[in-house]
Amino acid sequence: MTIQRMDNVLIVVEDLDAVISFFVELGMELEGRGPIEGRWVERVIGIDGVRQDVAMLRTPDGHGRVELTMFHAPKAVRAEPKDAPANTLGIRRIMFAVDDIEDVVARLRDHGAELVGELARYEDAYRLCYLRGPEGIVVGLAQQLG
What we know:
By secondary structure, this protein is of the alpha+beta class. 18% of the residues lie in helices and 42% in strands. Strands 1, 2, 3, 4, 5, 6, 7, 8 and 9 form a nine-stranded mixed beta sheet that branches.
């Protein structure tokens, strides 16, 4: 099996409160919000010194999610170069839950995909990575552990 489901879409924003309000007005539910930093996230996204606030919103059916993030450090990048880093404003990646992350990475590499950062472990919960594929599209992969 290649993927289990589409997990969430990440949008980097400058005004987290305003964007949360917009999506809540649209009908999404705020699941949670909080700060994210540390070596594990730096390894996944390939950027050192990351400090960010993250909010996760879900569709009413519980299946679709949008993750919003506001970078405090390093500051978000406005101009979008060809290989835009993970802290560029706008939609940055689509995250998929997978059964075997190493197998999926290997198969996507055969189609030209490259790791953005590293394959990293988050506690005892997930193995995660970002891949840059065709047209610079960034896909996140998450394998739940346990």
